[in-house]
Amino acid sequence: MRSPRSIWNPSPYLVIASLALSACAPSEKDIKLPPPPEETTLVDLDRFVGEEIGVPIGDARPWVTHLRSVDLDQDGRLDLIGCEAKDSEVVWLRQLEDGNFNEILIAPNAQAPVHAEAYDMDADGDLDVLVSCMNIVFPNNDKIGTLMVLENDGSQNFTQRILLENVDRVTDARAADFDKDGDLDIAVGQFGYDQGEVRWLRNLGDWKFESEVVLSLSGTINVTVDDYTGDGWLDFAAIVSQQWEEIHLFENDRNGGFLKSRVIWGSTNDDYASSGMTSGDLNRDGKPDLIFTNGDGFGPNAVPGPRPWHGVQWLENKGNGFFKYHRIADLGGAYSPEIVDIDDDGDMDVIALSSFNDWANPKAESMVLYENDGRMNFQAIVLAHDPIQLLTVDTGVYDSSGRQSIVTGGLHAYQPYERMSRFMIWRPNK
């Protein structure tokens, strides 16, 4: 069995993967995955115009591990929440009346946060922030993970409440009312290292939660929540990397718990390099699908970079918890898929980033749009060659135009230390 590897475990340096020199080479069968539809990649660098927001980079090398578009103060202007893992900070980029952003630190000493989502956890009418923390982003077997809530007092003053601590390193958490009792429970993914877990926390009220482990595998990157079986109860899914390279579905048993997890997709390629997953109705048939990337740049080679099998794919929900695999496109170093109707034509497109690419090539893709023609054929359009090493992306309507903008965050913990970014907004230009 190979050494663990993942988006959060760097070899010489970082959150995003761990080197595995002893790894088995991928088999010929795995490399020959079902190909994407034939396409001609276009380049449209003027479609969106990017600008830095928040605190200037200066001499820093940012480690932005996650960002989320949300109107945190509910003033009608979309803001941004960001995680800076190296500095252990959660920040709020508040959008001002003139469209500029004021960066506000809302959680210092946040123990290497890697994911943040906004929910009204205590049902008091304002948005709190649920934060997943690894504590140490380098490979570590200690139980040092933490899940916290930044409780909002209604005036955007935040108090840290620890919901889970002294566990395998936490990479993602999503809140939902799984048991239909009127309050928010939480699905939690824990990467760990040699050990890891997926669990859910049942809300008992008054900031107390009962914890149940539903999977004991290392390497969970993301969890997503939706009614995947169509029975009216919320389920959740988890993408698990390392030697497993699987996607698990946790079906709600409609009795206050979950059935044993079921693998709905997996690869025998030990270097498949799962790197992220999101949920949404990509084909607009009323059933939530799963879109995921594989592009972790580490593996059996000492230098991170693209692999021929990296790319973007989706699991089409066929009903009753069954899914069909589709390859959307090849993309070396693919990360952070995002579903959005970017061109407002009524069908859903996909945006993905390349965090590990051949950066010696100035034409290497950094951000790519996969534009849907309405018949689930996707045209690849390169939106940016730089900045490079983008890790996280989201979208939202940030102005009165009603059009979608893109926000990105860069993580720069490996050479080349050039063409860097921290937080950026990309506004539509045409």
TrEMBL record:
Protein name per the record: VCBS repeat-containing protein
Top-level lineage group: Bacteria
SUPFAM superfamilies: Integrin alpha N-terminal domain
Signal listed as a keyword: yes
Key word Signal present: yes
Keywords: Signal
Source organism of the structure: Pelagicoccus albus
